Each structure stands twice: as structure tokens, then as C-alpha cells.
Amino acid sequence: MLEEIRALYAYGAWANARVLDSAEQLDPERLTTDVDGFGAIRDTLVHTASAQWTWVERWHGNSPVQLWDPAEFPDVESLRTRWALVEDATSAYLATLDEPELARVVGYVNFQGEAWSYPLWQQLLHQANHATQHRSEAAQLLTRFGCSPGSLDFLVFFDEQGPH
């Protein structure tokens, strides 16, 4: 399962970059304005990156007490810079894992102060799935503004990597 999880995270980094590339095409007002009650595209992307950071921290034994404040990211480049650090930390963490480690139960304290624990493999897949949800929300809004990130399909990622 570890090879597949690593592939899923490589795909996620690729898809995140495509969405950020599209978001850079928006003027700052469109990027930061609530869209019909769905929130701002910037806020959705900050949430996605911040959630990934939160899970990486949890896997290292830390329990952050809050997500990032979207106001700290006035433009796509500031978010891209911080998210790149998270992607690097995620890749470095995944590189340390072996198959037996995936079954390890990892505990953490959520933002409400409640203690939770799940096997690592469930947390890894949860985080990747959570990111997919929010990427799709951002992609839909970007498409609405004429800045579609194009296909974010898993197999398109592999096709772009070259022969299988």
C-alpha cells in the first residue's frame, strides 16, 4: 500500500500546482472575494494547504491548535511558497515510512481539544481525500471565472509522467 500512497501524494502535489497555476490568472479581488456563499478561492486553497500541514504535524507527534489564517496570504505566490514547504515535508515524511508503519495508530488532539487516534494509513488516505474535495471546489470556481485548471484526473497525472 505504501507505493500507492506515495503515488497518490505525488498526484496531489501535481494537482495542487495546476490549481495554483490557474488561480494566478485571477485578479486579486476575484481571488479573495466570497463567491455566492462558497467562500473565496484563496480561502479554500489556504484551507487545503493548512489541513495538509496539520496532518503532517500530527504524524510528527504535534497537534496544531488552528488552521492558517487566509489573510496571511495576500496572493497566490505567498501561498505557493508556504505550500511548497508543506509538500517537501510531506514527501520527506512519506520517504521515511515502511509498510508496517502504516498500521501504527497515531493519536492527536483536534482543534476542539478532543483526543483521537487512527491507523496511519487511514489518516494518510483521509488527508489526500480531503484535499481532493477542496481542490475540486476551487477548480469549479476557477472554471466559472474562465481559469480552469484543466483535467485533474489521476490517470492524466500518470500520462504526463511518461511511460508506465
Coarse shape: globular
Helix content: 55-70%
Mean model confidence by pLDDT? 96
How do the helices and strands follow one another from N- to C-terminus?
HHHHEEHH
Uncertain residue ranges:
none
Please report the first level of CATH classification, the CATH class: Mainly Alpha
What portion of residues belong to β-strands? 5-15%
CATH fold description: Four Helix Bundle (Hemerythrin (Met), subunit A)
Order of strands, main sheet, comes to 1-2
Structural class: mainly alpha
Query: How many strand elements?
Result: 2
Total domains, how many?
Answer: 1
What does this structure look like?
- About 60% of the residues lie in helices and about 5% in strands.
- By secondary structure, the chain is mainly alpha-helical.
- It has one domain: Four Helix Bundle (Hemerythrin (Met), subunit A), CATH 1.20.120.
- It has a two-stranded antiparallel ribbon.
- Strand 1 (about 105-110) and strand 2 form a beta hairpin.
- Helix 1 (about 1-25) packs antiparallel against helix 4, helix 1 (about 1-25) packs parallel to helix 5 (about 120-145) and helix 3 (about 40-60) packs antiparallel against helix 5.
- The radius of gyration is 16 Å and the shape is globular.
List keywords for this structure.
164 residues; two-stranded antiparallel ribbon; globular; Four Helix Bundle (Hemerythrin (Met), subunit A); mainly alpha
